[in-house]
UniProtKB/TrEMBL annotation:
Domain Rhodanese: 23-125
Top-level taxon in the UniProt lineage: Eukaryota
Stated name of the protein: Rhodanese/Cell cycle control phosphatase superfamily protein
SMART domains cross-referenced by the UniProt entry: RHOD
Molecular function per GO: catalytic activity
Amino acid sequence: MRSCSSEPEIITIDVHKANLLLRKGEYRFLDVRTTEEFMEGHVDFDDALNIPYMLNAPQGRVRNNKFLGQVLSLCNKDDQLIVGCQSGVRSAYATNILLKAGFKHVYNMGGGYLAWVENDLPVATLALTPKLEL
């Protein structure tokens, strides 16, 4: 007897496949790292979203209980998303939450931002540069 799993299947793609889908404009990138990590450097796409799966707190990182609601405020369940984080762990958890919530077209980006950088793919930063006093 075959058992039916209620767990959605997380499909993980590598950074090259992610880059191709993003460049074609077929998918939007959802970075689930902290805001600080995102500002230091992220996948270079104008419409990349940053909605942290984990938040920095005095006791360390804690799960963002508003994550799903924040995603739903900016995306609909038919949107095509590639979810990434630093190494691919948080994004797998986030992808699972989105799939369970009914999102239909979501990929996890394996290796995360670290793999993206290692493969010399385009990076953007939002880090503020100090103003020079004249």
